[in-house]
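Why predict the complex rather than its parts? Because the way molecules touch one another can change local conformation, and only a joint prediction can capture that. The input here totals 651 residues.
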Amino acid sequence: MDFDLPKEVALVKRTVRDFAEKRIAPLVPEMEATQKFPVSLIKEMGELGILGLITPPEYGGSGLGYLARMVAVEEVSRISAAVGVSLQVHHMGVATLVDFASEEQKQKYLPPLSRGEYLGTCAITEPTGGSDLLGMCSSAVSRCDGYLINGRKCFITNSHLCKAPIFVAKTGEGPKGISAFVVDADTEGFAYGREEHKMGLWGANTGELIFNNCRVPKENLIGDEGDGMKVALKIISEVGRAGMAATALGILQASFEEAVKFAKERTLYGKPISNLQAIQWNIADISAQLDSSRMLCYRAAWLKDAGRDCSIETTMAKTYVTESALQCSKKALEIHGGCGTMMEYNIQRFFRDAMVCISAGGTSEIGKLVISRAALS
Amino acid sequence: MAQKKSKLHELEIIVCIKPVPDPRKWDKLKLDPETMLLNRSQVPPVINALDLNAIEQAMQIKETNGGKVTVVTMAPPDAADQLQEALALGCDQAYLLSDIAFAGADTLATARCLAAAIKKIGRIDLVFCGAYSLDGSTSQVGPQVAELLEIPDLTHVVKLQIEGEGVKAECKTESADVIFESQFPALITFDREVNQPRLPGMVGIRRAKDISVVKWNAADLGINTDQVGLKGSPTQMLNVFTPTIGRKGEILQGSALELTSQLLSKLRTEKLLQ
Ligand SMILES: Cc1cc2nc3c(=O)[nH]c(=O)nc-3n(C[C@H](O)[C@H](O)[C@H](O)COP(=O)(O)OP(=O)(O)OC[C@H]3O[C@@H](n4cnc5c(N)ncnc54)[C@H](O)[C@@H]3O)c2cc1C
Ligand SMILES: Cc1cc2nc3c(=O)[nH]c(=O)nc-3n(C[C@H](O)[C@H](O)[C@H](O)COP(=O)(O)OP(=O)(O)OC[C@H]3O[C@@H](n4cnc5c(N)ncnc54)[C@H](O)[C@@H]3O)c2cc1C
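Output of the joint prediction:
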């Protein structure tokens, strides 16, 4: 059994860490102040190649795979979880095309997504509830050579940064009554809606997509009519949850580093607080949760690369790691005492970001539902 | 977009890289007082920073003029990782010179190995090195390799242009910046200011995975083992120590005139003033 990352993945990790420290870290203060995504970064991520990690070479990617994507999102999120979540949802859009799109759709949409002409997205959630997929209201009514779309998607990552969003809508009733599409943003009847203000992940763009009698041509249907549920479940459970786990893993790593640094620097009673057992126990907890989180994440990605079933393992990773990031960033914040609540310290950002990761990609309750269903079967 | 110069032949460039302990983790680097060797186990090796400048320069030339870039290191077997990174940056082939007989080499023994490998690789136009390594830092390896290959060397280059069948280089010296010209083949050592090294792209990392590193030992190089490693090294390290630099502060008292003469006499006794 080999616990080392494959050499090329280790190089991806080091390279992305370098990139995140040099190119993303300087953008964080501006993102925190404006809550806007730094658009120039999209091109840079494209040039580095992290937008095309799971895109095959014939469509402009590297095809390095899901473990490489896992460590890339982890390293980006260690510096900025907001950029991390944007990157990971971009990969959800890419994965939908790679796994389900027609050759023409792949050739049209994948190369610009690899180059960083815009970010990808996958719009599923509606105001009727993200947990209740079948409860969605958006409709796609078949009309001669296309579909007439009406409805509204909400809480969509990269909503306003994506020129060709992928979305699902109802073409009928029940699980077979949902279909997946891609829409060009300049199509009549399509509009970007409101942008959300979240408690964390500031700078990640989250917003609405609005369809008002929007005519989408037939060739924009992804897969067959009625495949939407299958597409959505696979992309959410194998790609989206892995990505949220990676985002939370980055936050967890960053929280660990901040906790250790502060504990060694802060002096009380004439000694650094790292001498206090209460602090040591907290550091031990964070350390162990970080390590177990990383193993869950890497195994899930490894299974995916091996082409094996991974939806349960990925859901386990997502649920455990996002909850761990929240618990550990809270502990790390508490180690900082009052300083932890001051905006000058990064740890408050990690805590707020971790909270937002809980529901994105499916809530912890939904995660437990999936895990327990498998355990009890 | 740089223009491709059509009349120029495809350039053959060799870049020598040295794995050095990651400078970001030097606080974990320990000197064993007994063996006087660095204990590197806690500090992973990385490509010497200036060698990344050398690779970047080679890539820029390849992108404008075409050509092939070969990367070479004399190092323990795990330096294959650094070579893989060089390949990911765009180098075309990589050679790892590794043999237990190479261990303990000084700069001359290192240069002999590198020169032997470069000769064996074949026709060359340019050999690139860093101006110095971050650990040994002697700046000798480049010039020694040039000497052994009997080709000119231009050191501490901060700007390089390909001109016809040769190069024009701006070199940094203590007194001035000097511009030199040389025909091919030539060896160049680069300073940090020459460029901003790129990061390896993901496509490059994927591509590098399919290129295998060529491994050569002393026998492959046809080199006599008493010419390399500790045996072939004229430099004997007697001692390695951390110099202690003490500071002393002294407060002088008196009137301005007294202070001036006191200060002058102190500076004279310390031989800081004639
Ligand atoms: C930052 C962020 C980014 C996002 N990005 C995207 C995106 O790119 N694309 C996209 O489609 N969506 C996205 N979402 C939406 C996300 O997937 C949903 O928020 C999530 O699925 C939960 O849906 P909801 O918010 O409607 O909560 P609801 O579904 O309304 O859930 C409310 C509560 O009920 C609980 N609950 C629901 N069902 C059950 C059950 N069966 N048993 C027990 N408890 C249950 C939930 O756990 C939760 O506590 C994003 C969300 C966030 C916060
Ligand atoms: C603390 C310390 C002190 C040392 N002092 C001396 C000394 O005084 N005299 C002495 O002879 N040796 C000395 N050495 C040994 C010396 O570091 C090694 O022989 C080394 O192989 C080359 O010398 P350098 O690191 O100084 O290289 P430099 O000459 O500073 O390196 C310049 C460039 O040469 C190339 N290069 C250097 N080594 C290699 C290699 N192995 N493979 C490929 N390219 C390479 C690289 O392009 C590099 O950027 C010392 C080593 C250490 C760690």
